[in-house]
Write a structure and sequence with these properties.
Layout: E1 6-14, H1 16-19, E2 38-41, H2 43-46, E3 56-58, H3 76-92, E4 98-105, E5 125-126, E6 134-135, H4 137-146, H5 148-155, E7 158-167, H6 177-199, E8 205-208, H7 213-219, H8 224-242, E9 246-249, H9 276-290
Parallel strand pairs: 1-4, 1-7, 2-4, 7-8, 8-9
Antiparallel strand pairs: 2-3, 5-6
Helix pairs in contact: 3-9, 4-6, 6-8, 7-8
């Protein structure tokens, strides 16, 4: 089959580190001209429970997150899109199919009760910026993913899912240990399984390990939040061990990571959001692993 009849899908889900919060792009790095070989889902046409088909458009660094309205950031999605198009522009189209990106993220939203990623969150979809936007994220994501197969069939393309990347669960470290122990693994299982069921097959899922230790100590010097972070990471490791399609990505392997300094060399000054350089490096690992 010709490469132009093939496509691969990258799915980025989570909270603020999936949004790219706090790291606005320099003017020269913004993707303002729609890409020719990377495509995304524009909010204006796809942020709805009522749509019955996906409307893809050439990828830009604005308007493509179906969660909150925060554009032109050095998000993992934007970094990967740029890498992919640059490689094809070098003449390597034969080795890479077109890339289709699904990006759904809202800052400060975990998976436990009351957060928008909780599978039982009240069904709603209110668009807007952080503080206004209010979306039942798990059923909405399932709705979008359920439309993938028909979308590519209509385009006459075969597709694979290179991966679902989960960059979330940070806020769940703020709940009590009793809640974590009784619910958090089951909730993650339910959420992740629902994504695969919506696509129609088990697909690779990558859980990004939580490492913002300084932030947790800032908000809770008692160390309980940090202990909760470690417990969530333990759950991620258990999910990896129990599911062939789940793996854990550890950003501490980044060459910028320094163990014994505040922010570890990979976070901006708020010690919770990754730097642009860190997100570029993570995008490179994803790209190289696919290639």
């Amino acid at each position: 089959m010709q490469q132009n009849n093939k496509a691969t899908v990258f799915i980025l889900l989570g909270q603020s580190n999936a949004v790219g919060h706090g790291i606005p792009m320099c003017e020269e790095d913004k993707i303002t001209e729609p890409m020719k070989n990377v495509f995304g889902l524009c909010r204006n046409f796809n942020q709805s429970f009522e749509n019955t088909e996906l409307k893809w458009s050439g990828y830009t660094s604005f308007g493509m997150n179906l969660g909150e309205e925060q554009d032109n950031t050095y998000s993992l999605a934007n970094c990967l899109a740029k890498l992919w198009q640059q490689e094809i522009d070098k003449g390597n189209k034969r080795n890479l199919p077109d890339l289709y990106i699904v990006h759904i993220a809202i800052g400060a939203q975990g998976v436990t009760d009351g957060y928008m990623w909780n599978p039982n969150y009240e069904r709603k979809l209110i668009p807007g910026i952080l503080g206004t936007v209010d979306v039942s994220l798990t059923p909405f994501t399932c709705h979008i993913l359920s439309l993938l197969k028909d979308s590519f069939n209509k385009m006459g393309k075969t597709f694979d899912v290179m991966g679902i990347h989960w960059r979330g669960s940070e806020n769940d470290a703020s709940v009590s240990r009793e809640v974590l122990k009784s619910t958090v693994k089951d909730i993650h299982n339910e959420m992740l399984n629902s994504f695969c069921l919506s696509i129609g097959q088990n697909v690779p899922i990558t859980l990004h390990r939580l490492v913002c230790c300084d932030r947790y100590m800032d908000v809770d010097p008692s160390g309980e939040a940090l202990d909760n972070m470690n417990y969530i990471n333990q759950i991620f490791s258990e999910l990896e061990a129990e599911n062939e399609n789940i793996s854990v990505f550890d950003v501490r392997k980044c060459p910028y990571y320094i163990p014994d300094i505040r922010g570890n060399g990979i976070f901006i000054q708020d010690v919770v959001h990754y730097t642009a350089e860190t997100n570029r490096w993570v995008a490179e690992q994803i790209f190289n692993n696919y290639r």
